[in-house]
Design brief:
This protein has 104 residues and is of the alpha+beta class. The chain is 23% helix and 34% strand.
């Protein structure tokens, strides 16, 4: 089964699921949501899944969902911030007045 990214609002995190039956959590991105902003605060992937690009899929899925929901992104998490730097087409999600604070 292809990995999938799901929002788990009850735990305030996005999870990437993988495995034969698509139920194994390979990583997550924790967030804090307030009105029209989503602050990413921590991202982690299970070392067993290292090197498979799942962290990148997780970041893309979470940020694509934020875009679809019209949320502004505050990338406090170094992984999400670094991913946005490598994918400048996502920079517009970060409010222009706050980009310098995140080095974007």
């Amino acid at each position: 089964m292809e990995p999938q990214v799901l929002d788990r609002p009850d735990t305030s995190r996005y999870e990437i699921l993988t495995g034969d039956d698509g139920t194994e959590t390979a990583g997550f991105a924790e967030y804090f949501l307030s009105e029209d902003e989503i602050a990413f605060i921590h991202t982690e992937t299970d070392p067993r899944f290292a090197g498979r690009g799942l962290g990148s899929l997780l970041a893309r899925g979470a940020l694509d969902d934020a875009r679809a929901r019209g949320l502004r992104v505050l990338p406090y998490c170094p992984f999400i911030r670094g991913w946005i730097r490598k994918h400048p087409e996502y920079t517009d999600l970060v409010p222009e007045t706050r980009r310098a604070r995140f080095g974007l």
